[in-house]
Amino acid sequence: MSHRARFAVFVIGVAGLAVLYVLAAFRLPDFGGRFHPYGERAVTSAIAERTKNVVSSVNFDQRAFDTVGEELILFASALGAVVLLRTVRREREEEAGEHGYGPADVFDALRLTGYALLPVTLLIGVYIVAHGHLSPGGGFQGGVVLGTALHLLYLTGDYPALDRLRPVPAFEAGEALAAGVFVILGLAGAGLVIPMNAMVGLEVGCAIVLVLTKFFEQALLVRTDEAGKGEGT
Question: How many domains does the chain have?
Fold first, then answer.
């Protein structure tokens, strides 16, 4: 697609969005009024579905299909990072532990803190995901905690151990599976707060791991192949 064609598609999309936004703005209730149809319907639906809190009911019961779009934003971000940071022909990826990438020399206090916090942080992440239906949020926040908890090993200076702990193909499969199941559950309808929240936690956790993995690989393992210069990317 040419630059002019892409610009035309962009202008059409922006114009359509602007029209819909203006039409929606005219239908909003008066500011400061007592009539709030969305709020009233949200509370009524949450009570009808016996959801523990209105926020989870809105996210997973009433607008689950919309939440699918939000969920896939992180999926697309992780995919973009994987594609953008892939190893090209003039680069090569070293094995963890090669050329001095073994356990680094860090303070004993930092090493012990990392090892001690790793299982605790993983447990907290699981707890947040498992109880997401009881409090606002859950899957997103718990997934971030789980995804970053593994990288406490990096703070201990033991990158090879981190590399063994997070097999990338397994996390790629987990992210794709969680995203697919979440779409199916979003299309299925209401009353699925707990399984949908669990899929959110799995997808977010795997996506965080994949994104951080690619950044670590670029910073630590990817080296320019001098013999391959000039061959293109």
Answer: 1
